[in-house]
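Q: Sequence in, structure out?
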Amino acid sequence: MKSISRRNLIVTAGLFAAGALAGCGSDKPAASTGSSAGSKGGNYKIGVLQLTEHGALDQTNKGFVDALNDSGISCSVDQQNAQNDQSACQTIASKFVNDGVDLVFAIATPAAQAMAGATSDIPIVGSAITDYAESGLVADNDAPGGNVTGSSDLTPVADQIDLMLKLLPDTESVGILFCSAESNSEVQVKLAEETLDAAGVAHERYSVSSSNEIQQVVQSMVGKVDAIYAPTDNTIAAGMAAVSDIANENGLPTIVGCDTMVEDGGLASYSINYHDLGYKAGEMAVKILSEGADPADMPIEYLSSEECQLIVNQATADALGVNVSILDGGQTV
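A: Exactly. Output:
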């Protein structure tokens, strides 16, 4: 898959698994922050709570750890994956509190919500979360006011819809596919609906409550819509292979919210880079641990529009008979 740097686009508006301790950083002593590990001059203990396994969240995790390593702080990282189980999120959150970790990195909204519900003292840095305030994680995205901060995966939804209409100019109706259990998907769905309304294109919501419903719901869209829009939704992203199998077989182009969803068969996206998103969160964590920064005073951070990328799946385009050479730059694979 080849990506093209995005130009001149405006961003308008992510079962308990026992993880081994993984070393990070260098052998340099960590600066003290008054926490149990830092005050002793030893390794910081960092817990990572990832909601589930799929490419975008995995890349977010890797970016975070890379930032820790590049910073040179001394730390140990306890990696835990909840396998998309909310009760597992809560169990892992309680574990981190009992372990007395110095900081938690929470990947995706449900993971951050579980962690925030378990402690108001331990710093929590989130990522792959669209709107922290809307999700009840902070008082305000510009002034969090508590122990939670992080980086947002708000994508250029309006530009993604514009991309759809450019590639598929005959589109008269769009099915918006998302998981009703994910609050941040609602934010993106509303943005998509506003853009489609402005363009005079009809749209309908198609929601699933779990991954088990994806195949049936996508199948129900066949013959009713001309194209599918799927935002950065964890459930849909994890099941994107199933979505694309049905959609592509039935001639339904799918514009998606992130690059990994394109890699799994979606037609195209203007996407943020999730490794970069995790790296930004890692830099925030380092400031909290080694510089004494307070999450309450750290605004939610975003990737800039210039950091977004145009991603196209040439195999999908060929299968659907979509001409992607009209795109700016014309680079596809």
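The radius of gyration is 20 Å.
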